[in-house]
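To: structure subgroup
Subject: Chain for Friday's discussion

All,

I'm putting the inputs and outputs inline so they're searchable in the archive.
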Amino acid sequence: MTVSSHRNVLKLLTLGLIFHVVFIASVFDCYFTSPVVHGILPRRAGSGEAKRVVLIHQLLNQQFLSGDGLRADLLFGVDAFSFTPSSPKIVAPYLRDIIQTRGAFGLSHTRVPTESRPGHGWKTNPVHFDSIFNQSSHTFSFGSPDILPMFAQGATPGKVDTWSYDEEDEDFTKDATALDTWEYMNNIQVVDRIVQQTEELFSNFYHDEETSFVFTAHHGMSRISNHGDGDPDNTRTPLIARGRGIRGPFPDIIPSSHDEYSRLWQLDDFLRRDVEQADLAALMAALLGINYPVNSVGILPDADPTRPGYLLPREGESALARLALANAESISEHYRIKHAFEPLEATQDGKPSRVSWLFKIEYLIKTTELIKVTLQGLRYLETVAYLGWSAYASLSIFPLPASSVSDRQCTVVRLTTATMLAIFWALFAAERAPWTFYVYVTFPCYFWQQFALRGVPIVVQQFKSSDRRGHFIGKVVLHLIIIVIVLQCMVVH
């Protein structure tokens, strides 16, 4: 091997190592950047429908084991535990009766990680965030010592009271499979009775019909008794709501709201209205008539006029429009803070119709999509970078003969690369992006510039001079496959 070849290999390995280290770090910009921003102006969610909201957020525990998580199919299903001797046909009869006679239901889709941690910490969230509990006049919370401090910390002092069992009673060292099928089924039955007793307790104490009840779970559980990843059994949780301000059961629509997953529940006659878990904050804020939590990106289920939601407001459609408008403005505040966005001014008469409001809502909600597009763009940039790395590495894996690229062509390629890099850097500067973004975009620009100068001319030249162009194309494709395999093996090892 010549000195030049040694230098090329050393350059390839060194550059490859730096490139992969940098783009491994990009994972944190894509997936582990806190969405919490400060300085957001709160928006009030109407005048409210209920005096109080009871959130029953389910954790299944076996004597404080870490076997928590309630799957939607095992709660809603008929004969869901048929493989267990003496199991009832309906495991949660009271909750099912709510669905069929006086409430609304669906799935609450959680996000990864399916763990009880809204930020990056386990015990507490390192970044203070607003919540529905902080916006309420007062919150009385009962539950796990790992969870409650997350919402009490950073809240207005004295607004969130917590009661939890002793932390020493938890045992996370036991085998997760200890929560066997019988215990899991029994715990669902216990929860069903707790829901009934809670409703009776509030009714007997307040002697009114001004309470809303929301039942859900923070995540599900996989078939091997764990959670944390994006397994559908972990992300699909039940949602049942009833009480003041909440509609009763609706008949199913056409096309049906059910799929193969829910047809086994034998609830096909009733509308299934799915939401994202983050949407529950907006729903509860609307029920209470309080500010939408300033850090919430949840969308009120009733903001979509094409589908029934969960609310039954006293003022009807006009109330839903006002709630949706406030929700859209609340979400747009996130973009305004990060990108100096100014929302549209209200109409001159101050009382636009629901149709005109919906146009404004649609415009405002689209602005929040830019935040998602930014992250999608970063992931797309990763893909382009890795493809560029593959193309650049191919120049060393399969050395090509010298190409006859004119000075003019070199100038055009380099000028084009510099222009694209300058545009990206200018955009990043305008958006006040982290310095790492500048590095991320530099790599693919360099890789593709080198391939355009050294690889493309040779490929084009050989393609034009080849008598069997089909054979030549097949050969190029085969080379690309070999390159990808080699690079993947380098990454694996």
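Points worth raising on Friday:
Residues 354-397 form the longest helix (44 residues).
The beta strands are 52-58, 103-109, 139-143, 160-164, 211-217, 236-243, 275-276.

D.
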